Amino acid sequence: GLPFQLRTHTQVERLFDGLELIEPGLLLAHHWRPDDDRSTTLRDAQVGIYGGVARKA
C-alpha cells in the first residue's frame, strides 16, 4: 500500500496559501466539470478528492 494523509477542505485550502485560486476554486473534483453527465450521478460523499488550480499572485 501507499501511505496517504486524509485532509479536510480547510487543510487542503491551506496548501494554496500565497497563491491565487482560479475559478471555480477548491471543490470536490466532480464539481469541476458540472456539464459532464458523469459528474451528476455522483454524490459528494462518494468523492474523496479535492481539485484546485492556482497561480502565483
How can the largest sheet be summarized? 2 strands, antiparallel
* Strand segment tally: 4
Structural class: alpha+beta
**Which stretches of 5+ consecutive residues score pLDDT under 50?**
none
From the N-terminal CA to the C-terminal CA, the straight-line distance is 37 Å
Which shape, going by the Cα principal axes? Answer: flat
Mean pLDDT: 88
- The helix/strand order is HEEEE
Largest sheet strand order: 1-4
Tell me about this structure.
This protein has 57 residues and is an alpha+beta fold. The protein has one domain. It has one helix and four strands; from the N terminus they run αββββ. The strands form two sheets. It has a two-stranded antiparallel ribbon. Strands 2-3 form a two-stranded antiparallel sheet. The chain starts with 8 loop residues before the first helix and ends with a strand. The mean pLDDT is 88.
Structure summary:
By secondary structure, the protein is an alpha+beta fold. 11% of the residues lie in helices and 18% in strands.
Keywords summarizing the entry:
57 residues, flat, two-stranded antiparallel ribbon, alpha+beta
Give the helices and strands, then pairings.
Layout: H1 9-14, E1 19-21, E2 27-28, E3 50-51, E4 54-56
Antiparallel strand pairs: 1-4, 2-3
